Amino acid sequence: MKVKLKVNTKLKNIEKRVNAVKNMYDTTFLTGKISRDMEKEVGLRFRNEVDTDGKVWESLKPRTIVRRYNSGLKKKKGKNAVKGRPKILQNTGRLKRSIKARNTKTEAIVGTNVKYAAVHNFGSRKKNIPQRRFMGLNRGQRLKYKEWIRKWHKGELR
After folding, report:
1. CB 82 within 8 A of CB 72
2. Chain centroid to CA 2: how far?
3. Distance, CA of 1 to CA of 4 (rounded, Å)
4. Rounded to two decimals, what is the model's pTM?
5. How many CB atoms are located within 10 Å of the residue 51 CB?
6. N or C, where is the chain less crowded by C-beta within 10 Å?
């Protein structure tokens, strides 16, 4: 009696495929990657002072600039005195530092616990505060995350 042994050459990537199946129902890695990227994007918006679509935020009013400059002079003297123009939405840096990312198996979350964040993100006619969007997804992010999800389904995302 002869035994036939046939080797299937399509099983070269078996380990990769097994790991993909193992991780198929645990999306924690994927949502974590997305939430960290969203947090990075918000940080870039603060640095570049642009909204979700890349439009420059409305500049500060002259009286705001003067007020910040004068309050800065009282606090800092000598070589640490206030220099350059003040950053928009970054008087103390509290809002920018409060942006945090977290994730669950089903959600990628970026947010803040600062109460005045919504007023600055959406603007307020009542308080005469212009809209300066720093939270939200743009078209490029949506496409990038859609591609990551597609790759994750195929087991290609690392």
Report:
1. yes
2. 63
3. 10
4. 0.75
5. 19
6. N
Tell me phi and psi for residue 88, to 5 degrees: -75, 135
- For tokens 């959600």, what's the residue? 107
Exposed/middle/buried for residue 108 (C-beta within 10 Å: 0-12, 13-18, 19+): buried
One-letter identity of residue 42: V
Helix or strand (DSSP H, E) at 109: strand 108-111
Given a contact cutoff of 8 angstroms between Cβ atoms, the answer to whether 90 and 46 are in contact is: yes
Q: Supply the angle between the helices 28-48 and 139-154 in degrees, to the nearest 10.
A: 160
Sorted by sequence, the CB contacts under 8 Å of residue 45 that are 6+ apart come out as 51, 52, 133, 134
The residue type at 47:
R
φ/ψ (deg, to 5) at 116: -85, 0
pLDDT tens-digit readout, 84-99: 678 899 888 999 999 9
Shortest CA distance to 101 belongs to which of 153, 155, 57, 37?
Answer: 37
